[in-house]
Amino acid sequence: MKQIVQLILSGLAAVLLTTGCRGLATSGEKSARKDLAEVSRQWQTNLATLTTNATLHEAVYLAVQNHPQVIAAFADWSASVESITVARSLPDPKLTFQAYIQDNLTSLMPGLSADIPGYGKRDARAAAATSNSRAKYFQFAAAVQQTAFGLQKSYYPLHFLDAKLNVNRQTLTLLSKLEALARAKNEVGQGTLQDVLKAQMEQKQLQTETTNLEDSRQVMLAQFKAALGLRPEQADPPVPAEPNFTDNRLDDEQLLANALIQNPRLQELAAEIRSAEANIQVARKEKMPDFSAGFQAEVYEPPFYWPQASISLPIWRDKLAAERAAAEAGLRAAKARLTAGQISLAVEFAEQSYLVREADRQLVLLRESLLPRAKQSLEIARVAYQSSRVDFPNVIDAERSQLNFQLDEIAAQTQREIARAELILMVAGVRPGNVPLLKPTNTQPAN
Questions:
Q1: Full set of structural domains in the chain with CATH
Q2: What does the alpha-carbon distance between residue 65 and residue 71 come to, in Å, rounded to a whole number?
Q3: Which residues neighbour 443 within 8 Å (Cβ) at sequence distance 6 or greater?
């Protein structure tokens, strides 16, 4: 019989140690793993750099898949999904050995024991881990949105810098023609050398500004490269030529309603509320006792078994009350943060939508009124100067007005595109293109 007992215990230990066991996944764990698998199937990292004919959408897609900030957030979410399994699992069983030795070994009792958490504790801990995992997903989604916006925020100034350089070069060509005109008039005694000098000074000043802009391009290109998640030693990426402008007007009321539902920051805060509620359930379950059960078998005597059992005594009521109070305070804090987030989002929405509308009005004014008139004024001034009806400073003033309005148009469009990108991505939480994110839910975050 001793051999039978030894054989049973040895076989049981071998099975436990070599093959292990699997617990039963909760519904929340299954759902979290399904979501993780859905995103993982679409996820790639360390993608190739941009091609020379890449679009802005392709640059955004590369950035959100390749940026270290997004990769880290994705890894944190993956780890939080695994933590659900840890939270709902039973503690490991224990193999025990007890021996009595006097002059020699007189008793040997191998055994097996297991700890059993109190009723509902594992479910409560799994629910808390599931809610925390959901919050981690929304942190990941927010990192995607931030990276997409960061890419566009670095791209538009770089794109419009090239537009500024083009305007400056066209203006330099114009100034060169004006200088030639001033020289010709001076040679026939109809103009003064001062007119020539004024044209030259304007050119020198604009050439210096153009040189500074060209120099600043390297800084902006470095920012664009960093926004793509490329390391310093990697080659500089090509800048997409097409910015994919969208001139359609936004429905502010509908956009704000959607933002309150699908903004990742608000969804994260709502998930923190559910996590805090789950922590309250965990704290409530702490008053339930835990159990331990097992047995030992005597090897040197006729088969004799020693059953073992124990139960914890949760007698420290102040400790239990403190755990519950802390969890309830955490819930109040989470609700307050959500309310603060909703207020902040509404203010941010108002600010960014105002900037978009302001830029739209400025663009209409410049394109439909100021720029056409400035071009007409410059042409009239140039013709009038040729016939000596106006002085050269009038021509220079007209040239400056046209240049300034052209630069104002570029600045307004830069402001519009950056504000619109922030409004769509950071505030409204609209998915950037077809990046790998879960479909947004249509449920309002709980208060």
A1: 2-427 (1.20.1600.10)
A2: 7
A3: 261
* 56, 121, 131, 281, 284 from 327: Cα distances, Å: 46, 15, 14, 9, 10
Which residues on neighbouring strands pair with residue 304, listed in sequence order?
298
- Tokens for 122, please give them: 């594992």
What the block records as the tokens of 6 is 């030894």
- Portion of the chain with pLDDT greater than 70, in percent: 87
Distance in angstroms (rounded) separating the CA atoms of residues 22 and 116 = 16
Q: Is 95 exposed, middle or buried (0-12, 13-18, 19+ CB in 10 A)?
A: middle
- Check: CB of residue 59 under 8 Å from CB of residue 228: yes
Cβ contacts of 174 within 8 Å, gap of 6 or more: 399
Mean pLDDT in residue range 73-100: 88
**Which of 90, 76, 89, 91 lies closest to 132, judged by CA?**
76
Give the tens place of pLDDT for each residue, 315-345.
888 888 998 999 999 999 999 999 998 899 8
The C-alpha atoms of residue 313 and residue 320 are separated, in whole angstroms, by 12
**239 and 415 Cβ atoms separated by less than 8 Å:** no
Which amino acid type is present at position 352? Q
Using CA of residue 323, residue 326, residue 324, residue 339, what is the dihedral sign?
negative
pTM above 0.70, yes or no: yes
Phi, psi (5° rounding) for residue 96?
Answer: -120, 155
Choose among 431, 441, 438: nearest CA to 41.
438
- Please provide the size of the chain in residues: 447
Q: Any idea which residue has 């957030």 for tokens?
A: 73
